[in-house]
Design brief:
By secondary structure, the protein is an alpha+beta fold. The protein has 12 helices and 9 strands. The strands form 3 sheets. The protein has a 4-stranded antiparallel sheet, sandwiched between helices. A 3-stranded antiparallel sheet has the order 7-8-9, with helices on both faces. It has a two-stranded antiparallel sheet with strand order 2-3. Helix 4 packs antiparallel against helix 5 and helix 9 runs parallel beside helix 11.
Length: 328
Amino acid sequence: MVEILNAIYEQDFLDCSYGFRPGRGQHQALDEVGRVICTRPTGWVLEIDVTAYFDSIVREQLMEMIEKRVRDRSVLRLIRKWIQVGVIEEGRLLVSETGTGQGQTISPLLANIYLHYVLDAWFENEVKPRLRGAAHEIRFADDAVLCFQYKEDAERVMEVLPKRFAKYGLTIHPEKTRLLEFGRYAEEKAKRAGKKPATFDFLGFTHVCARSRRGKFTVHVKTMKKRFRRGLQAIAEWCRENRHMPVEEQQKTLNAKLRGHYQYYGRPTNYRSMWRFSREVRHIWRKWLSRRTRGKGMTWEKYAAILRKHPLLLPRILHSWHGAGSYA
């Protein structure tokens, strides 16, 4: 059923949407953010954060949207059953009146259909023709950024956006949704004022105004502080709980965790953050290996010998400059 619906909606979904679509993902969305800001007239960025998006979708409105493209009554009944099923939590069945029920195979697609009508099509067909300058949207699931050429356009959209979302039962987070000056002119203006230009977060990365080696304006990314701390906390918790496991087994699991971190965060310009992460993991591992025996800490010499025999993976850049840096 999901394959059939995907075939239908891939004809409708716009290029600005990257979440839960065949052949698209977070890194294509990140590439597009950099490309738009560096090659299009962009001076302002609007970060959009939707509060509890998946749990707030109004089911009747979602079904009305689906009925525009799907006429088969048996298919519609099946979809309605899917979105009304509850979840079992701690042995209890919980049924809510809104949301699509996260965890189901069809849920990401349904959530994408909802925001396609609420945001994508509305912004493309109704908002952009009324703006004075250029504007672009990049969205992955419920994470989205809007890029504008002029401040007045951005302010107009920011004013009407909460009303648009409220019409469909969604709430814009008042603190995480913000408008900031960002782009080549923002970087030059901040430099003249002796300040650092503003930054914004998208898909786990903090985006920073920078200059390439040739002196051209570009956008650099680094791991968000919140994601950085969360990753280290998870590894520290694992090391604490498994400190008595054989060292060889600990090394295999830690390398699997590091590999996953590098595969996502290994983007150009983010090597320094990954190196810091790798270094902190080494400190964490030594700390909990030292606590395997009471009263006897592990010297750095002994730990160095362990690392020689059971090395941890070093950071690597695993994503190319394609799309993200070719314009720099």
